[in-house]
Every structure is written in C-alpha cells, then in structure tokens.
C-alpha cells in the first residue's frame, strides 16, 4: 500500500480496549494506513498489511516527539489513550491527581502539538478526542455512577482543550480543520467493565465510532458528540 495515497489514521492507546479495536476496524477500510501508537508496541496483523505500530507514551514529551517524527503526513488523529479508575479527589494524593492531568490533558496536547505539521500536510485534518459523559459538568452534579473525581475533571478539561484547539487551528490560513470531542458510550473494556452489566461490546461501539469519524464534516468542529453523532451537553 502506498502511504502517499492512503487515508492515514493515528490512534493513541492502541494496545487494548477501544483503541485496539479502532485500529483493527480502520485497517480494513479501503485504501487506509493506520499508525497504532502504544506505550509498549507490538505488531497487529491486518489482511491489508497496513498497520504500523509505534511507541508513544503521552506522558513523555520525548516519546511523543519521537513518534511524530515517524509520521510525515496524517489525515485523522484519534486521541483515545487515557487513564481512569474509581478514585475521588478528596482521598487521593496530589501526585496521583497530577498524573491524571498529565496523561489525560497535557498528554493529548503534547500529541496534537507534535502532529500538527503532519495534519497540515493533508487536507482532511480531523482530530477526534475520546472524552466521556463524565466530562459533562451539569451531568456530574450529584452523580454517583461511573468514573468521577479526577477522571471527570480531566475529561471536562479535555472538552475545553478541544474548543481551544479548534479556535487556534481555525486562526491559521492553512485551511479548515475538524476537531471534535466524542463520548464513546459505556463500553466493555478494562475501564468500563468494573461498572457491571449493560455496557456495549467493544466491536459494536467502535463500529459506531468509525462511522462517526468517517462522517465528520468541517461544520462539526468544536462539537461534543456521542457515538451516535448526537450532541452532548457540555
Ligand atoms: N470504556 C468506557 O466505557 C468509556 C466510556 C467513556 C469514555 N471512554 C474513553 O475512551 C477511551 C478509551 O477507553 P478504554 O475503555 O478503551 O480504556 P482502557 O481499556 O483502559 O485502555 C486505555 C488505553 O490508554 C492507554 N494509555 C494509558 N496511559 C497512557 C499513556 N501515558 N500513553 C499512551 N497510552 C496510554 C493504555 O495503554 P497501556 O495498555 O499501555 O496501559 C490503553 O491502551 C479513553 O479516553 C476513555 O476515557 C471509555
């Protein structure tokens, strides 16, 4: 497959869960090349032989810069990697809280900053940030279910970061970008599983995400969408 003509995707957090399934489903789309970015890279097979695994730890600037150096051109960046456990602000250490902010907020900004040149080298320029309904501030008032505390803070900050990326990229004269924040639904992964029965299986959830990503248009930029493409409350 020639990378010059293929639609090129990069997915962070591709080692498991939603990220790994995104890589698999994107790789079987026609004329596609997928960078699977992981902390500890391993090969992922694809019938099209079009998946490149690269090392990327978004808590490390040098790791992110080294990963970006391997990606000359990029159509769509999917910021999927995050940490999330059942923790609460008032009984956690400041160091652990700082780790959430570093991995889930500063981390995606490291990745976007490093990959802007590759995105600008193509016209597609889609950036998709995997957020959560936990990032909806009004929805968190009195909430007792799901990940809350530092995770919710980080996802609300991530939503704001998407709006700021949209603003900063739309000031440039390189042409439009499409930057969205997406709640993938409650999905049966290591992160979603501890909350009991009733989650979506990862294959179905990612099929919906892939449809959403493919259908994004410039007018969608700065929107907070769910996996079905419905608007979410900020
Ligand atoms: N599952 C749900 O119900 C749900 C609901 C709402 C939103 N989300 C969001 O959807 C996204 C994917 O969630 P998931 O359920 O697939 O989570 P997951 O199964 O816990 O997987 C998290 C991924 O992030 C990676 N990661 C963690 N820290 C990283 C770092 N410093 N640098 C690079 N990669 C790192 C992990 O890599 P390692 O294998 O190296 O740890 C793993 O690949 C997340 O942004 C999550 O917040 C999930």
TrEMBL record:
Record flagged with keyword Phosphoprotein: no
Domain of life of the organism encoding this protein: Eukaryota
CDD domains: carb_red_sniffer_like_SDR_c
Residue spans crossing the bilayer: none
InterPro entries from the UniProt entry: NAD(P)-bd_dom_sf, Sc_DH/Rdtase_CS, SDR_enzymes, SDR_fam
GO molecular function, a single term: oxidoreductase activity, acting on the CH-OH group of donors, NAD or NADP as acceptor
Keywords: NADP
Keyword NADP: yes
Name the UniProt record assigns to this protein: NAD(P)-binding protein
Lineage: Eukaryota, Fungi, Dikarya, Ascomycota, Pezizomycotina
């Amino acid at each position: 497959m020639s990378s010059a003509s293929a639609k090129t995707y990069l997915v962070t957090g591709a080692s498991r869960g939603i990220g790994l399934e995104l890589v698999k489903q994107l790789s079987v789309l026609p004329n596609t090349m997928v960078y699977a970015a992981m902390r500890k890279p391993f090969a992922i097979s694809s019938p099209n032989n079009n998946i490149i695994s690269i090392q990327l730890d978004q808590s490390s600037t040098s790791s992110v810069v080294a990963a970006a150096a391997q990606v000359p051109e990029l159509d769509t960046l999917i910021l999927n990697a995050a940490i999330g456990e059942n923790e609460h602000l008032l009984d956690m250490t400041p160091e652990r809280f700082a780790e959430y902010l570093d991995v889930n907020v500063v981390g995606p900004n490291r990745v976007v900053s490093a990959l802007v040149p590759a995105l600008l080298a193509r016209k597609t320029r889609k950036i998709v940030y995997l957020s959560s309904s936990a990032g909806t501030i009004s929805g968190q008032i009195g909430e007792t279910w799901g990940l809350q505390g530092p995770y919710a803070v980080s996802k609300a900050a991530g939503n704001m970061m998407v709006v700021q990326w949209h603003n900063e990229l739309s000031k440039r004269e390189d042409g439009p970008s499409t930057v969205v924040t997406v709640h993938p639904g409650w999905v049966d992964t290591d992160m979603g599983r501890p909350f009991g029965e009733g989650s979506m299986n990862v294959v179905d959830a990612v099929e919906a995400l892939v449809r959403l990503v493919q259908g994004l248009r410039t007018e969608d930029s700065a929107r907070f969408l769910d996996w079905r493409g419905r608007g979410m409350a900020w």
